[in-house]
Design brief:
The chain is an alpha/beta fold. It contains 14 helices and 17 strands. The structure holds pyridoxal-5'-phosphate (PLP).
């Protein structure tokens, strides 16, 4: 057993008895990660297609990111936003290299939900209008604003009343858009690929029509790229795949290589958006996170992450076609790049549990989709030796 201050029973008991039960636990204690693998306290290795809800997309404990963090931790761990900071400037320089030319200013936060909050606040501020349109099946986070535009009753109902003047329309139903994209909206918020809702890609026609109508009616278009952005789809931003640019978009999860971050990006001509004092965050733009994110962006560019994603994704989808489609539980394959959904005929969560027994960590999405969010480092050998055999077993593939 790996060295640990507490034995397994003790540490599970501490989490079970002391931590509010807002997550259903799996019986696994993870203590170490490297690249596309994680190890549990017993020393067992797992192929990680869960990546902490998509965070470890650049791999666990990426050497370059670790080095950047360690160097920064030894120099300066916190720095108020009222002062300039070298790590923050490095991040901004590197991140700006990933942005299409129409985008300018950014606001830096500590999580995806906060980045969504900023987008919503900014939309009201810019347009001086109040209403929002979001979509059924969407997920934008757990804070009040982000939850208010999340199209899932299960998450919303216990906390109502939420932010008023939020309407929902059906995702990917193009002919309804003309009726619901009204001039009184401050913004429409949409995930180009719904993640938590079931790995549901928008259609190109849907996003194009949304863009056309929002432009025509003076409504801002917000893309939530917290799960699908930063290379996950095989494109730096999912909107590049669709050929549709939003006015505002949000980024989170893998951007700081594993540390907490959320960034809201604004079209250049929207200017500064906030006046000093109108928004803020004690930890947002923290130098350690900034050093990690600066290194993550460098790595992203130098290693041509989107290209690598496209290559391995093609292989994974081909192997999935050859195998899981023969399962009696199988309904359809969905997704783009390394955001992969296997829709089943029944609840996916028991299959996620069984995958653990076969040393692969996965996720569910919606109710019936088995979701895979592997790191871009996943190899053909990982796919052939771990992922496909595990799926064949748990989905009882018979040919
Ligand atoms: C599309 C999307 N938006 C927002 C969020 C919320 O991000 P966070 O959990 O970092 O607050 C998530 C998290 O899963 C997400 O997938």
């Amino acid at each position: 057993m790996e060295e640990s201050l507490l034995n397994v029973a003790e540490l599970m008991e501490l989490e079970n008895s002391f931590l509010s039960r807002y997550y259903r636990k799996k019986g696994l204690v993870l203590v170490r990660g490297w690249g596309q693998y994680v190890w549990d306290v017993e020393g067992r290795m797992f192929l990680d297609c869960n990546t902490g809800y998509g965070v470890a997309f650049l791999g666990h404990c990426n050497e370059r990111i670790v080095r950047a963090i360690v160097e920064q931790v030894q120099r300066l761990m916190t720095c108020a936003m009222t002062f300039y900071n070298d790590a923050r400037a490095r991040f901004l320089r590197n991140f700006s290299r990933l942005l299409p030319s129409r985008f300018g200013k950014v606001v830096i936060q500590n999580s995806g939900a906060e980045a969504v909050e900023v987008a919503l606040k900014a939309a009201r501020k810019i347009t001086k209008k109040k209403a929002f349109l979001a979509f059924v099946g969407s997920f934008h986070g757990r804070t009040f604003g982000a939850l208010s535009v999340t199209g899932n009753e299960k998450y919303r109902r216990p906390f109502e009343p939420l932010v008023p003047e939020v309407r929902f329309a059906r995702f990917n139903v193009v002919h309804e858009l003309d009726k619901v994209v009204t001039e009184d909206l401050a913004a429409v918020i949409v995930e180009p690929i719904q993640g938590e809702g079931g790995v549901n890609p928008a259609t190109r026609d849907f996003l194009k029509e949304l863009r056309r109508l929002t432009e025509e009616r003076g409504v801002l278009l917000i893309f939530d790229e917290i799960q699908c952005g930063f290379g996950r789809t095989g494109y730096t931003w999912a909107f590049e795949y669709y050929g549709v640019e939003p006015d505002i978009f949000t980024v989170g999860k893998p951007l700081a290589g594993g540390l907490p971050i959320g960034v809201t990006v604004f079209r250049k001509d929207l200017g500064d958006v906030f006046e000093p004092g109108e928004h803020g965050s004690t930890f947002g733009g923290n130098p350690v996170v900034m050093a990690a994110a600066a290194a993550a962006c460098e790595l992203f560019i130098e290693d041509n992450v989107p290209e690598k994603v496209r290559q391995i994704s093609e292989y994974i989808f081909k192997r999935l076609e050859e195998t899981v489609t023969y399962s009696r539980y199988f309904l359809r394959l969905k997704g783009l790049g390394l955001m992969i959904g296997i829709e089943l005929r029944q609840d996916a969560e028991p299959f996620v549990d069984k995958m653990i027994e076969h040393r692969v960590l996965a996720l569910s999405a919606g109710k019936t989709t088995l979701r895979l969010l592997p790191p871009y480092l996943i190899t053909r050998q990982d796919v052939d030796n771990y992922l496909i055999p595990a799926l064949e077993k748990v989905l009882e593939v018979k040919r």
